[in-house]
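step 3/5: co-fold with F0G
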Amino acid sequence: MNNIKFFLGEEIPLELHKVRVIQKLNLVPIERRLRALEESGYNTFGLSTKDVYLDMLTDSGTNAMSDNQIAAMFQADDAYAGSQSFERLKTAVEDVLGKKFLLPVHQGRAAENVICRAFVKPGDVIPMNYHFTTFLAHVLENKATIAELVYDHAFNFDTYHPFKGNIDIEKLEDTIKKHGVEKIPFIRMEASTNLIGGQPFSISNMMDVRRIADKYGIMVVLDASLLGENAYLVQQREEQWKENTLGEIIKMMTGLADIVYFSARKLSSSRGGGICTNRKELYQGMEALIPLFEGFLTYGGISVREIEAMAVGLYETLDETMISQSPTFIKYFVEELAKHKVPVVTPPGVLGCHVNAMPFCDHIPQSQYPAGALAAAYFLISGVRGMERGTVSSVRDENGVEVLANCELLRLAVPRRVFTLSQIKYAVDRMAWLYENRKLIGGLQFTYEPPVLRFFMGKLAPVSDWSEKLMYKFRQDFGDSL
Ligand code: F0G
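step 4/5: write tokens
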């Protein structure tokens, strides 16, 4: 994919697939988009897809499936116990992730629930590169806490560091000494660290983490939901691994972990998840929780059809043309926005293009949720739905005091093989316009704030009539354009 040279000079990401099934999209007028935003409580999770033009909310469950995945779904073996579909998935997990014991779960957070119930006790501390929302929620459910140990420069979004998802090894050792080994059930590494802009870790960093884990006798748990893309960026950016295949890099990373878990909605398919290990006693420590929360051990709450798609999808993560598609589109997206001075997370990571709402909306206090406001404003003027990754997505402390997030990002997800380049160009065009008119964006406040995972269900309202003013400006500049 990266070796294609162009005669006219402009380097564009080239699709190495063709479209064979399509879904029609709506681009509704801005007046309808304003109503839709009001109905959603200024929360893009509350929007209906009938009002959304490009759905860049997430890549979770929205990556395009391949013809081979769809074909495999027809040979599924429907059985409560002992399904051959599960056997095929087990083989794929062993071939691709190098782990022989597999527990199927209905999605990634279900794996987090099982792992936390099995290994986390009240008062424990889980060191990690950075949290993911659902993992943190399960840690808190189990009355434990986390320690986030990325390097400080991970939050300098406009500086280049190839592996901003690395754990600071000095901080890791200090954390272990501070809390004591008995309080640390495992160290969690998240591939392509989601909440800080889809930033990868390097293999050499994971080797250092393993060394510290061995020194203190602590387990390493790898969240592999975005492992394929992390492996691709290792191949691109880590000198020693340039000549290795994705398969070799993936096996190297999973080999450094005691337990690997994943959301198959991201890693390999549109549904499902799994936990795998080579250590029988760890498998047995979690086994009983699967029939309790998920389903029997050979389907784990996933339909057998989806299990077939997961198995094929796992093998497809070894295919560079498949895995590189989203990161190359994201790179183009990020670089085009940067040309128009839009503040974006660099270097381009995986999962999506991340717009830095702090400088974009530097006139909005963080207590009025700049990233949430930017997500709402961008949907209003473009019909593109992104996701707030900032203070709305974080949690209040034990005294109910708002904890301002380390960063305020608008994530525009680029699921694998879903959008065309012209759609990305449209998204860039509208974002460049919004940046010129950014001072019209105002803050948000909660009108309904649920105590857990508030970013999903919460409702907000603008602090002034800024969204109407933004709509009038759009009409002035674009006439009757959609
Ligand atoms: N771990 C990571 C790194 C994730 O990105 C996600 C989901 C999960 C675990 C949980 O998996 O959704 O299958 O339960 N990320 C989605 C997102 C929701 O939009 O980033 P799940």
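step 5/5: annotate
The first helix runs from residue 30 to 40.
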